Amino acid sequence: MTVTAVTTDERALAELQRDHGPALLGFLLGLTYGDRQRAEDLAQETLLRAWQHPEAFEAPYTSMRPWLFTVGRRLAIDARRSRLARPAEIGDSALDGAPDPSDATESAVAALDVRAAVRELSPEHRAVLVRIYFDGLSVQEAAAELGIPAGTVKSRSHYALRALGRGLPGYSPARTAVARTGR
Asked: Which of 147, 144, 136 lies closest to 183, judged by CA?
């Protein structure tokens, strides 16, 4: 026994498209902030749902328009949620401005900038940063080596990173501090 899918009559679907298609497209254009291609895709998907659900034509509606608009709105919401769940796509132009990782000149210049900025720090702040970032010690290990409480190590590293941020162009202490310490 084979099961055949029941679909809407093609003439009824063509009439639905003729009567309600332009209004549906206009409604979906508003939901997609004027993105015509996305609105057309959603309108096509809405009509496909109407074709797949002939029982909607038998409902006691005066018009199919509310049903179509509800289905279209739900499809638009689902599509938006789906897009927001994926990471944002970036174009190749974003990579054009990034430095070449194989270029040793960029990293050498950055190292010189960091060394000069670290020399400008107070001896206490510099000692903490050297232990944590250059020697790779944990906060507790740096505290034991320097003979100060762990909270003081955290505080000094925080203020040292802020001072470095003011002295280094393009440097973000919030991003780097979390990524580097992890402690």
From this structure: 136
- Other beta carbons within 10 angstroms of residue 12's beta carbon come to 14
Dist. CA 38–CA 28, nearest whole Å: 8
Q: How far apart are CA 2 and CA 117, in angstroms?
A: 77
Amino acid at 12: A
Tokens 């940063």, located at residue:
129
pLDDT > 90 in the chain, percent: 38
Q: Assess contact for 163 and 121: CB atoms under 8 A.
A: yes
- Name every residue whose Cβ is closer than 8 Å to that of residue 162 and which is 6 or more positions away in sequence: 173
Range among 2-11, 37-46, 85-94, 102-111 rated most confident: 37-46
Give the integer Cα–Cα distance in Å for 127 and 129: 6
- Greatest pairwise CA separation for the chain in angstroms: 86
Place of tokens 């000149």: 105
What tens digit of pLDDT does each residue of 16-55 get?
Answer: 889 999 999 999 999 998 999 999 999 999 999 988 887 8
pTM of the model: 0.45
Burial of 129 (0-12, 13-18, 19+ CB in 10 A): buried
